[in-house]
Design a protein that fits this description.
This protein has 110 residues and is α+β, with helices and mostly antiparallel strands. The chain is built from four helices and four strands.
Amino acid sequence: SSSSCCPASRACSSARASMAAAEANESVERGIELLVEGLNRLGAKDADGAKTVTFGVVFKDEILEQQLETLVGSLKAAKKRGILDFKGQMLLQGAHDSVVITLAKDKVTD
């Protein structure tokens, strides 16, 4: 009977979904790592020891452009985790080029 297949196929589907979610999370984590490396390279230390750089500089950086699948997604995820901060919810090229991105002091490597 075909009904005996359903639980197994649901389990397979659930396992596939959970693997896809794990891969997506790994991709987000890697994007954040690349972004932190980029901000450390591009940014300047402020008086508090954090690093700051404008979105325009980050957006135009060729290394980040080649490495990151989605800069905006990585910025939002990193902001949500408290790794960096910027004004607003999302940054768009042109409109937000002068917005300062601040990398948290504990993520500054030099």
